[in-house]
Amino acid sequence: MTDQATRVRTELTINDTPFLMAQGQDVDDLKQRIEAASQAGGRFVDFIVVGDRAHSVLITATTRVVVTVDIVPFDVLEADDQAPYDANFDFDGYPTNGQDLPPTW
Predict the structure, then answer these.
(1) 3-state DSSP call for residue 104?
(2) Of 16, 33, 60, 66, which has the fewest beta carbons less than 10 angstroms from its beta carbon?
(3) Shortest CA distance to 10 belongs to which of 91, 2, 22?
(4) Cβ(37)–Cβ(59) under 8 Å?
(5) CB neighbours of 4 closer than 8 A, spacing ≥ 6?
């Protein structure tokens, strides 16, 4: 890699649905919890994704899980998982206050 700063980016894909993990997730612990849930016949496994959003996914013996870990250039906007997100707007940029109005940027 170059001289620029880098960081680890972890993506968890469950049955073709990707989840970009929040910084600080213990990937080894998460993998162990997924394995234990699968071996137990099914359990919910909790984890945090970028934006500090909590997810709980039912893992069974037939669940397909892929963990991808990449070393990527450091991005200031991704350094704080909250940076690109605002709790007052959904992912389309519309207010979450129940109004069907476009954002006023």
Answers:
(1) coil
(2) 16
(3) 22
(4) yes
(5) 73, 74
Closest C-alpha to 30, from 49, 15, 16, 17: 49
* 69 contacts 12 by C-beta, under 8 angstroms: no
Q: Which residues of 56-83 are buried (b: 16+ CB within 10 A; e: fewer)?
A: ebebeeeeebeeeeeeeeeeeebeebee
Q: What's the chain's Rg over C-alpha atoms?
A: 17
Per-residue confidence of the chain (105 residues) as pLDDT tens digits?
A: 445 687 788 999 999 999 999 888 899 999 999 999 999 999 999 999 988 899 999 999 999 999 999 887 776 555 555 444 444 444 454 545 555 555 555
Which two tokens mark 43?
Answer: 């359990």
Residue-level pLDDT at 80: 53
The answer to pTM > 0.70 is no
Which long-range contacts link 22-29 to residues 24+ away (Cβ below 8 Å)? 22/48, 22/49, 22/50, 22/51, 22/52, 22/81, 23/79, 23/81, 27/67, 27/69
